[in-house]
Amino acid sequence: MPHPALGLGFARSRLDRTALPRDGEALARHAADPSALTVVIAGEVPILLVPAEGGSPTALMPLPGLDRLPGGVREQALLGTWDGRPALATLLDPGAAEAVAGDPGFQALDLRSIAVGGVVPEEEAGLLAAAKSVLSWHARHRFCANCGAPTAPAQAGFRRDCGACSAQHFPRTDPVVIMLVTRGDHCLLGRQARFPAGNYSCLAGFLEPGETVEDAVRREVREEAGIGVGRVAYHSSQPWPFPSSLMIGCVADALDEALTIDREELEDARWFHRDEVALMMENRHPGGLRNPPPVAIAHHLIRSFLEGARG
Ligand SMILES: [Zn+2]
Q1: With CB atoms 3.0 to 4.6 Å apart as the test, which of 58, 84, 188, 250 could cross-link to 179 if both were Cys?
Q2: In the chain, where does DSSP find H-type helix?
């Protein structure tokens, strides 16, 4: 699809990643710009700015406003520009989220709840996702994976360099395949034990090194449901910043029907007729079964099956 579907979490952003060069001085230069904006994450938790005049919280706050927040700046990255203003990501100590609890000017809330609840505009949730992924990467890569020496941020926060062995480390994204397997008027949905009661979704799993997207889809479906898969087609993708996944949404044709379910992975999986899925999507299923909400890419894969659209 040409544009992210409405409601798909973390997929929209007005961030212009190309507007500012990421040279060695870029971060300091733009951090000194009085028009600069930042999103703020304390440990794993975004801190939102609540307007004094009321209205919705925003993820974007003027960079000079950081002075009002407790705790030291652990890391910063220059993400790009937002409406022409430099946009940074700032990582604070985890304690800052608790410290603002009584301050009506701020709201600390986990990113999943922000997206599901539509607490900030969709495009700001996308910006928060980018910030959280790159800042989480900094927090977890303070030492060189090659030699174990400390690393230091470079390239405006989009690289870490090792002073001992000169290795350069780049922010990572972990690809996950998520697929709707169909056979005629039926699709295959499963549930993990940790899902809310009654929720059925697409199968999914991490790509392994050296594997194509198509082969990962076929392997995961074979492992989890014992089903052979033929044609695999790309549908759309979604950043999933927990901490830095990319969900690669696919549709896939089943070659057979008899399920052998991996009970370690799935509590249940079964074929659903499209009429039953339609009831689930509308929250009218007589057994109370449901599909994931629009914030999840699975919702859009299932919806496109119901609408008869493919690929
Ligand atoms: Zn090293």
Answers
A1: 250
A2: 26-31, 95-99, 111-117, 122-140, 213-225, 274-281, 297-306
